[in-house]
Amino acid sequence: MNLKEFSDKLFSYDSALIFCHNRPDGDTLGCGLALKAAFAQKGKKADIVCVSDIPLKFGFLLSGVRIFKPNEIEEKYAAHVAVDCSAEMMINDAYSLFVKNTETFNVDHHVSNTKYAKYNYVENTGACCEILYGILKYAGVMTDKYISDCLILGIVTDTGNFMHGNTTENTLSVAGRLLASGAALHDISYRMFKSQPKSRATLHSRVMSRMKFYENDRVALISILKKDLEECSATSDMTEGFIDFPLSVDGVEVAVSLLENRENSYKISLRSKGRVNVNEIAASFGGGGHDLASGCVICGFYEDVKDKIIRAISLSL
Ligand SMILES: [Mn+2]
Fold this sequence. Notes:
The protein is of the alpha/beta class. It is 39% helix and 20% strand. It contains 14 helices and twelve strands.
């Protein structure tokens, strides 16, 4: 199915329930909010569901939009659409709701996508919002200021403000067209990259002061434990972007972040400068993502989890 066919099919339905991934980022939310607004523009109904709470920093774009939890969904929607979700596990507990409808759509930019829907559109772009821009264009949706803001949010966050290697000519071309239609690029970049609450700054300095190096300083590891969050009055969503700091260290090839999400369960994030394919490493633990940025969950005691992931990385160095 090409992009136009996917767009035609998606917009042939009168209502949609949009699924954003757990621990939502700017890309999944940007896609979700833009698609909901696009449906509204066509006189159709769409709602957004997400298992996680929405980080405060995205509040400025919600403008009264309610993001539902799976158990709050009572209505039936003609189609179910997952945005920026590479696998069933990213929709998490909402997956059982997702598959209650036979008309399921999956639009994503992760190479590891498991094509879990009836209609799948996966393309290796910088942000899923880049793909969504094309879908909305084919559907004849006008990219007004609000939709442009939503889409540029996903693009700036997933490309690290156009600094990651996933920034392509298409990324900049879509971003340019969004700017032309009113996207507040500077304001949104500033909110995402140049401002933070005190609790995050406190957590950041604490976590970075304990950074550890392995494999002749080619691997840098940070850990965020439950008690760190509690003692800094911070929430786990605030750790987004932390991994950029260990990766920035000269000589480091792979950065690892261990986030304690439950007792004896750690959410692992991996970033590579290019030599190591961290998608393969994450996949060996049942996770996935991109070659340069991926993640997985490993259960066990902290020291065991740390040893397992460091050993897996050392085999790829
Ligand atoms: Mn994304």
